Amino acid sequence: MRVAYGKVGQAGLWGAVLGAAGWSAYAAAEVVFASLLFGFTRPYAVFRPWHWQLTGVLLMGYLVVGAAAGALSGLAVFGLSRMGQVRKDSPAVLEAAAALTLAGAVVWNTAANAMGLTGAIPVLIAAVVYVLLLLVELRSDVWSERFGMLTNPWVIAGVLLGVEQVADLMDMASGQQLGGNIGLAVHLLEGALIVLIAAAVWLGRKLRPGMPAVRWAGGTLALGVLLIGSMEAMGMARPAAATVVAQSAAAPAPAGARPNVLVIVMDTVRADHLSLYGYERDTSPNLKALAQDSVVYTRAQSAADITLTSHASLFTGMYPSWHGAYCKEPDAAYGRPVQKDVPTLAELLRAQGYTTLGVAANLYMRSAFGLDRGFQEFRIERPVPLLSDENRCQLRRQMRRLLNLAIDTAQFDRLNSNAEEIDDQFLTTLDGRLQAAGQAPFFGFINYMDAHFPYIPPSPWDRKFPGKSSTLSKDTLEADQYVIAKGETIPAEYQPYCISQYDGGIAFIDAQIGRIVAGLKQRGLYDNTMIVVTSDHGEAFGERHNVEHGNSPYQNLLHVALLVKYPKGAHTGRVESPVSLIDVAPTVLQQTGAAVPGTMQGRSLLDASGPAQIFSETFHCQVIQSVACDGCGARAVVAWPYKYIAFLQGRRQLFNIESDPNENRELSGTMAAEVSDLGQAVTAWGKTIPKQSVQQMKLSPDEMKRLKSLGYVGGGK
Ligand SMILES: [Zn+2]
């Protein structure tokens, strides 16, 4: 069968084949690029099978659109050849026409949707150059030969993706808190682009005359399918789910043995969105059941408003200014690690012979910040971000919008393991560790991220509470967030959608906590395990022009859940007096019989004579900030029922958080005595903060990109 376009049917058919091959090559190149950048560079970035199913969906989208565009290009070539405008009977003409649809799509997409974003101008220039080259190729045999393989869709994809990546890296290099290897990465990538272009021209001149279009198309399709297939296989080759491993569960711990400890953090979950605390939507039936055997602390305060700082306080029993893990410009705009000489809960329990394991969804748990210290095994598995911000100028976002007409593509935005995957990883790791550790008790840590922006619980949890809309995605919500942060009216769709998905995410986490509890019971471990369920901070949905978390000292971010199932259910009930998350570590140490180090500022939750004042701190971080953030740094003290906030810029506020939990009625003008007392308390407390050595926090480009994808790094936004 000969590639030709002398007849209209032939032209359309071959155009469709070449278009499908070209566009799927481009799709595969995008996936390969994302995999190289995110997947293979870090050992903790393990592919998850689910993401490759989405990749398959994307590939099918490209295949169909490519076939349609290619068919149209074939028909155009047929018409033009009849008019004598293009060369007759040259397969290269059909190839060039099919590739032209691809380059043209990148030009259109970039010009229409990506202008103003990093890398848009260089990508646009490169794509326009390609359009011109392909137009020349349509009319000139001589130039077509000279270009060699330069206009092959694989090469087009490599050049356009590479140009965008270079621009993105150069943009990052202009920011703060970066390692020295970004410059090197830019030069390496520039070198690779030059080699690619030179090799495409040189090799192409030799190879292309002997490579008819049909083989070119077949080979390209096969290579794309092979690449996707091999990655799918890598994902599928992951260990089976924990239900299989559960058969080999460890023997029950002997009576009287030291208790196991499990700390579960529901990242970003506000206390007032849990039915455990009276929320009208039943988001936490499993926590309510667990509460039967537990003490529920109804007034728990987080020590800080972001993941890094709050987890560090949870793990060290110290306030942020003492453990040091907070944002500090200019050297550590995205956070400093925990001070090296500060002991963490995992280190202290490890020293007592505990076997220690952690599984986290949140990137801030990684070793660069010191939060994995003391864990014998710590897992942060992540999917390859197919649609992350770094690829915003390319075609995937438009393809996703197209696919969204037929299927739900919300999961495309997920950049972390979901709670079900976290449970699989945790139970598998736990079984392995228990077998290796014999009778040693364990300290386990779990961090779930399903309530975190962009709020994408899996089906059916996304429909559990009404409000989901298929027209909204991470992109549109981010655009809304900038409107909100500027002080303008909250877009009508923002809160109903976000809160429905946030609540669905919480309900999903709750179900997975139920699974962990059942898993412990199944292994005979439940009774003698101390289970702490809490959250690191809450979330804002437009209050005071704030979105997400960070840069805010108010209760929507600081009032968190705290439930403790003590070993053998030794204590139950509800505790109304305020407590701090810095109290968790000393309580755990007390329950395990270990000494509480003098560095810890928290007290045991079982100690009735606790401090009357509980402090929290917020530091200016590189996250989206509202017009009202007033410098975004503050210290707050709770002396029930009052809460006093001292902003570092000078403003002072007083609230009665018992009668006014949302802090709407500011009282500092009318309650001079409380303002004076609490103001002095914050000042005196501030004077005891130790002077710390200046820490430098360097991030690799890869880490930087991941933080950026999560919205933790502002970048060009
Ligand atoms: Zn967090």
List the helices and strands and how they pair.
Elements: H1 8-39, H2 49-82, H3 91-114, H4 120-139, H5 141-147, H6 153-173, H7 181-207, H8 213-236, H9 242-245, E1 260-266, H10 285-291, E2 295-297, E3 300-301, H11 307-316, H12 320-323, H13 345-351, E4 355-360, E5 377-379, H14 396-404, H15 419-437, E6 442-448, H16 474-485, H17 494-522, E7 529-534, E8 540-541, E9 547-548, H18 555-558, E10 559-560, E11 562-565, E12 573-575, E13 579-580, H19 584-592, E14 614-618, E15 634-639, E16 642-647, E17 652-656, H20 672-687, H21 701-709
Parallel strand pairs: 1-6, 1-7, 2-12, 3-13, 4-5, 4-6
Antiparallel strand pairs: 2-11, 3-10, 7-11, 8-9, 14-15, 15-16, 16-17
Zinc ion binds near residues 268, 307 and 537.
Can you describe what's shown?
The chain has 2 domains: 8-236, no CATH class; 260-381 and 417-611, Alkaline Phosphatase, subunit A (3-Layer(aba) Sandwich). The protein starts with 7 loop residues before the first helix and ends in an 8-residue tail after the last helix. The protein has helices at 8-39, 49-82, 91-114, 120-139, 141-147, 153-173, 181-207, 213-236, 242-245, 285-291, 307-316, 320-323, 345-351, 396-404, 419-437, 474-485, 494-522, 555-558, 584-592, 672-687, 701-709; strands at 260-266, 295-297, 300-301, 355-360, 377-379, 442-448, 529-534, 540-541, 547-548, 559-560, 562-565, 573-575, 579-580, 614-618, 634-639, 642-647, 652-656. An 8-stranded mixed sheet has the order 5-4-6-1-7-11-2-12, sandwiched between helices. The protein has a 4-stranded antiparallel sheet with strand order 14-15-16-17, covered by helices on one side. With 717 residues, it is an alpha/beta fold. It is built from 21 helices and 17 strands. 46% of the residues lie in helices and 10% in strands. It is elongated. Helix 4 packs antiparallel against helix 6. Residues 267-268, 307, 362, 536-537 line the site of zinc ion (ZN). Zinc ion (ZN) binds next to loops.
